Amino acid sequence: MRVATSMFRRVWIGLVAGLCVAGNAKAEPPPGYEVQPIDVQGARAATIDAYVLRPSGSGPWPAVVGLHGCGGLFNKNGQFSKRELDWGKRWAAAGYVVVFPDSFNPRGFRQICTVDGATRPIRPRHRGRDAAATLEWLSLQPFIDRNRLAIVGWSNGGSSVLELVGRPDDMRVPVAPKVAIAFYPGCRPSTDRDAFAGRAPLTILMGSADDWTPADRCRALVAKFPAVRLIEYPGAVHGFDAPDSPRRTRSGVGLSARGDGKVEVGTDPVARAAAIAEVETLLKAAFEPGGRK
Predict the structure, then answer these.
(1) CA terminus-to-terminus distance, the chain
(2) Which domains does the chain have, with CATH numbers?
(3) Dihedral angle at the C-alpha atoms of 189, 159, 287, 236, nearest 10 degrees?
């Protein structure tokens, strides 16, 4: 029975990959980015691609690891996500190395947003290991200041940030980041924990009107673990920090708070500007010379 179940699971995941969310073999990095293979061990072990952008000047530099959402790092046309592209430009301009690990395409998927949560083949705990492996690789590079590392994630990537910093017994983190930032993560699994490791100061940035990953779950996390910081932006919805993304109703989502596969997404100019300022402040505080170990 166990063998049959395992076989069924492999067949099902293969069908999902082949029919619904196949990886995009034509994905190309934007100008200036280098592609770095990184080996990830443990469950869902793989060699993933990390896209690295270096700032002008000479190092060693601080670095920011950015974890994409369930929509993947590349869109269906093989282009870099506008949100990650925008943040990457900002961070490189500030003098930080930027690294975006691609958790999906190297494993045969482009996106998993349309896959029901119970059958998603790649989960935040797997992506937390991707992030840990990326941080370890960064810490070994001569152009990196290993004492000034940060991690930022969006949606599914935000949930992966929570896994990285908060799972005390299942996440090998050779080099802990100085600061962690999670945009609109799904906080529910985290609230079930009896402990939260807190490997780095964690700030969660949420829209109060988010109906994809509702803020109430993150409020419950903060109530249980007061060291976690939550900032809510009134009236903002999922993806509020994306540039030039008109607010709209998205259908066909595998996980939605309303249960009908529909969610509100889109840019909120006020929340976006406030979040950009907040992230800049957090990174500057973590990376300033007085903050080094």
Answers:
(1) 53
(2) 2-291 (3.40.50.1820)
(3) -110
